[in-house]
């Protein structure tokens, strides 16, 4: 079978002869801020996505001590706003972009500290791999942050954080900062220097209203772009995944693949993603499970929540442990393998790719 054509292998009919007139033409392009397509098409319109971002792993054993050291040396407050340290993809030229669309960071809040309130167009979430004791106050509603919880701060919601304990806490933030920066869509507004409500309720008002399975309050019949739920609690996520694997054992259809349970966090008013630009999911692999190799348009970030295993990205295997984070850029082949029961939190830019009809997935069927 012949190989598919590439820009390099097709005959290039537009190879003009190098003459003084041609050079003058190209100088004319340059002087007038013009670039001809025929010299660029391989980069501008590749046969398949060729990301500048690279597959990369950040070890929790490096992230956490550096965040702790930042806690000693860098005060948190107005101006810098957050003690957040962004994961900078080595392929993206020194920007704090984990991918062309996504930001991922470790954030650290010391004992009794407050991160002031603000709001911005960018959508944000937090995921907690360890610790407790911080409340994030979202549009005036205090939301407890505990291990395994997913917290949402959709675009233009005021938010600040405060640590109610004598112990520090670290968590990860995910936002659509690169997408908004590259498209010049972001607005930002300062809010209160302190959080507007220092109460520490077990459940936020949003959860008390919305978090009853299958029940929608009649006061909330109008659909909202982002989820009205401030926190998706670990006990629910864990139970959902446990039940999927138990049902699979009973021979019932429940898992996404053999030995692979997965849930998507959704906006209960629409059944769609929790926010317009970011998809959040949680995946659990049974010990020994290997997922088929796949490629997807758009970028994805994982954080290991529990267990041990490995990820193969672009043919390179990386061993990963609790807290480790890794990015899979667009169309890079990847698969996961579980050494023990393996729990992973995942977020991606899939809502952008799907809404704009760029989404495409390829699964290696021979790998199933
Ligand atoms: Fe923020």
Walkthrough of the structure:
- It is built from 7 helices and 22 strands.
- The protein folds into 2 domains: 56-220, Jelly Rolls (Sandwich), CATH 2.60.120.10; 233-367, Sandwich (Jelly Rolls), CATH 2.60.120.10.
- Helices cover 17% and strands 30% of the residues.
- It has helices at 20-31, 41-44, 60-73, 177-182, 205-210, 234-249, 350-355, and strands at 56-58, 84-86, 103-109, 114-120, 124-127, 132-138, 141-146, 150-153, 159-163, 169-175, 188-190, 231-232, 260-264, 279-285, 294-296, 300-306, 309-313, 316-320, 325-328, 334-338, 342-348, 361-363.
- With 368 residues, it is an alpha+beta fold.
- A hairpin with a 2-residue loop joins strand 17 (309-313) and strand 18.
- Strands 1-19-16-21-14-13 form a 6-stranded antiparallel beta sheet. The chain has a 6-stranded antiparallel beta sheet with strand order 2-3-10-5-8-12. Strands 7-6-9-4-11 form a 5-stranded antiparallel beta sheet, with no helix packed on it.
- The mean pLDDT is 96.
- Bound molecules: fe (ii) ion.
- Residues 118, 120, 124, 159 line the site of fe (ii) ion (FE2).
- The site of fe (ii) ion (FE2) has 4 residues, from strand 4.
CATH structural class of the largest domain: Mainly Beta
Shape: globular
Tally of domains: 2
Q: CATH homologous superfamily of the largest domain - what is it? A: Jelly Rolls
Q: Determine the mean pLDDT.
A: 96
* Uncertain regions spanning at least 5 consecutive residues: none
Q: Into which percentage range does the β-strand content fall?
A: 25-35%
